[in-house]
Amino acid sequence: MADDEAQAVDTAxxxxxLWTTVGLVVIWICVLVISVFxxxxxxxxxxxxxxxxxxLTWLWALIGSVGYLWGMSKLRGTVDRKxxxxxxxxxxxxxxVIAAALSLFLPQWETGSDPTQLPIGALMAxxxxxxxxxxxxxxxxMFGRRP
Length: 147
Known about the structure:
mainly alpha
């Protein structure tokens, strides 16, 4: 009987680590895609291209990753929480894939007579993804607590 319980805990820890890794890998693949393929900020009459989304997305992904790891750490331990950590990993993956799609495909906002092109989607989607990742992690942590 004790061996069966030890195997259940090992399986739970292995699953927890796998799903934590899946979520982190998806976050950082999406960051790489946003950084490489998102439109640049094009400023003023000289049309200088500044890869602002590439610079800022890393910061928001770091914040989102910390929130995600915090949420997953609250779920670690028993097999009973397996659906919750699986759901959190899938939710975070979907959040960041949608953020990457929005960053790449939303139109740019053009201002003034010297057209400055602002990639609003590429700047705002990672911020939203980071906030939603933190929110999903808090909610999952709340569901993981025993009543």
